Amino acid sequence: MNSRKMFSLLLVLSLVVSVLAACSGGNNKNNVETNTASTNKPTNDSAKVEEQPSWQTEKFTLKFASWEDPKMEGEMMKAFMDKYPNITVEKDESINWPWTDALTSAASAGNLPDVFWLESVPVGVENEWLLDLNPYWEKDDEAQAIYPNIAKQAVYGGKRLASPTFQFIMGVYVNKTLLEKNNIPLPGYDWTITEMIDIAKKVSKPTDYIYGIGGPWGNLAFNEHWPMANDSSLGYNTFDGEKFHFTNQQWIDGYNQKLELRRLKVEEHMTKEEKIKVFGDENAWTLQKGHVAFGIDGSWNMNSLPPEMEKSGAGEVDFYPYPAGNAGQRMPVILDYIGVSSTTKHPEAAYELMKFMSWSKAGWLKRLELSKELDMNIDKFPVADFPDVWEKLKGELKLGGAIAAIGLLGDAVPDYNKVLPGWREFSAWASDEQKIFEKFETGELKPADKAQEMEDKANEFVSQALQRLNQ
User: Fold this and answer.
1) Which of 127, 151, 467, 471 is buried most deeply by CB count within 10 Å?
2) Positive or negative: CA dihedral 398, 400, 403, 408
3) Which domains does the chain carry?
4) pTM to 2 decimals?
5) pLDDT in tens, 6-48
6) How many Cβ atoms are within 10 Å of 25's Cβ, its own excluded?
């Protein structure tokens, strides 16, 4: 074979080898890279291990302080530890009443619990006890389910320094038996403020110590509830998130109506001597004795008061939603709060404990399960819109009015007593220093006469306090 033919044959063989190599996956370099990548690529299981945050693998202890029922809290803590076996949760028994004093002592000693209930959020903010929850809250899809009116609470200078836990409903205990005895038809759950006042006047027989209406701690608080019921731009006691509006006519009218019902003795306001005479007990609760048709009070009495009254013959009672004004039935609710210590060494885990013990979906589902096991009734409610939680909870309620009330919580109006700085100072100025409320009672002053001064003073106290906290 001549050299030219030999060269042609070698060239053909070379091309064939090249084609075969290409078809089989490329040259050695590509094969090495492919094999290396295949060998070193982590499996799905190892990827999950690498992605698991350290707070879910390291062993440590979190301290927790709560004033809630110890049996329920103990079981909830166990459930959290079952969920996160690497974490031990201990109840901090040193935090007890007086609550804020106990937290102050713990903070001074450098021993704040990792997670704790708060009686006054501003005190915790002023003393720098509280961790900013925003880095965790804003990434938490569940947090987005918290009702907007509630979610905006406990935020100072853009920092979320505490979280709501539960909401208690301020409603009306209706003595159905007392109304039936007076041949008065029961109002519907969608009743109005006007209906409530008209019926209260009809039922009231002060000479027989029967009264149309009463309020918690001797206060009907119409001035707090009526403005928001009639004007959707106003919140609790006219506060709109920035300012009070005591000069609003609804606040003045509500206060005047409260004073008039007391003057007419439609409101229950028995003296100690009268209670001894009628009930033999100066501390008797007149509503519980069956002598009040409408008792404005909180859901915390929802499971004890009605059965007690029925058993004693004081009447059959339902818990009605607060009646509607011009803006509809805007339910007043009372909030409790929880915080994470600014000194915690495990902020992610503390945040998860905080939400599990208060508002998370998993936490509430476990709480409802435990309520059955421990034979405990529900008297406080979620602050987030988890439909399956609400559906289960609804099945646990025994009063028709309570079921109607929870259906209105999406537009509820939270109080500010535990979160608004400056309010306590204003209350001390108005009550103790100026004795304004006492003078309203005696008729020495009228609400309209002091509304502007009170509005200015309340806004001054609050704005100054907020400026301090927002710095």
Assistant:
1) 151
2) negative
3) 54-167+335-407 (3.40.190.10), 169-332+415-470 (3.40.190.10)
4) 0.88
5) 333 333 334 333 433 343 344 333 333 333 333 344 445 544 5
6) 10
